[in-house]
Design a protein that fits this description.
The chain is an alpha/beta fold and 221 residues long. The protein has a single domain, classed as Glucose Oxidase, domain 1 (3-Layer(bba) Sandwich), CATH 3.50.30. It has three helices and 15 strands. Strands 1, 6, 7, 8, 10, 12, 13, 14 and 15 form a nine-stranded mixed sheet that branches. Strands 2-3 form a two-stranded antiparallel ribbon. Strands 4-5 form a two-stranded antiparallel ribbon. A hairpin with a 2-residue loop joins β2 and β3. α2 packs parallel to α3. The longest helix has 12 residues. The chain is globular.
């Protein structure tokens, strides 16, 4: 088995919804200054970099990251599905549905936008997902617990209101009896081999709605 990161490292100037991240990185202690160790301070928002949207992102009474048990972050039936998308294009119900394994527990949409992460269009023209996709997946994929995307957000910055509706459709725990977690800004190579398992490791901070995370894929190559 081999393991690969399906998430990006946190870095200064990384693309975030609407612009670039300013982490405010500052050395608190430095060996070069005579200290015994190197210690850094930085700050970031809960939706920067590869991150998980939990229900509390759009629902005050919804679950936040710390409400989920460890077992919730291990996915043993992942599926990557190809859905090429153009600038600001909205993913809707279509032919791609026929390829879905109804037993999958995390469905990852590979649009090709990972290759554009260093370009302006990644933050200025990102695709989105229509709320109807959430309704369909909740109704027809009963084992599904999360979806992942290889672009910045399921909300296209060119159509924010539709994006808010999509977030509510996925994260509403009352919609088809459960919420679907959203893993956004994933690193998905176009030549990704067969994926056997996905492990997500979120930063668990009490009280916050969502969290940056590390995503590890297990492959049988």
């Amino acid at each position: 088995m081999k393991y690969r990161y399906l998430s990006y490292p946190v870095s200064q100037g990384m693309p975030v919804y609407g612009g670039k991240a300013d982490l405010g990185i500052k050395a608190k202690r430095a060996i070069s200054s005579g200290d015994n160790a190197n210690v850094y301070k930085f700050s970031m928002e809960s939706h920067w970099g590869t991150h998980i949207d939990a229900p509390r992102h759009f629902f005050d009474n919804g679950k936040c990251i710390e409400d989920y048990p460890c077992s919730e972050w291990v996915f043993t039936a992942p599926q990557v599905i190809n859905t090429p998308l153009g600038p600001a294009e909205i993913l809707r119900i279509g032919k791609w549905m026929k390829a879905i394994n109804p037993l999958c527990d995390i469905l990852i949409f590979r649009s090709g936008w990972s290759a554009l992460r260093r370009h302006k269009k990644y933050v200025e023209q990102n695709p989105g997902i229509h709320p109807e996709v959430a309704v369909y997946l909740k109704k027809n994929c009963r084992n599904l617990r999360a979806i992942g995307i290889d672009w910045l957000s399921i909300s296209s910055i060119k159509n924010r209101e539709l994006g808010r509706e999509a977030h509510r459709a996925f994260l509403d725990s009352k919609g088809q009896d459960r919420a679907l977690l959203l893993v956004e800004d994933m690193r998905i190579n176009l030549k990704l081999p067969v994926l056997r398992r996905v492990i997500i490791s979120p930063i668990v901070v009490s009280g916050i709605d969502s969290a940056p995370c590390m995503v590890i894929g297990e492959f049988n190559d």
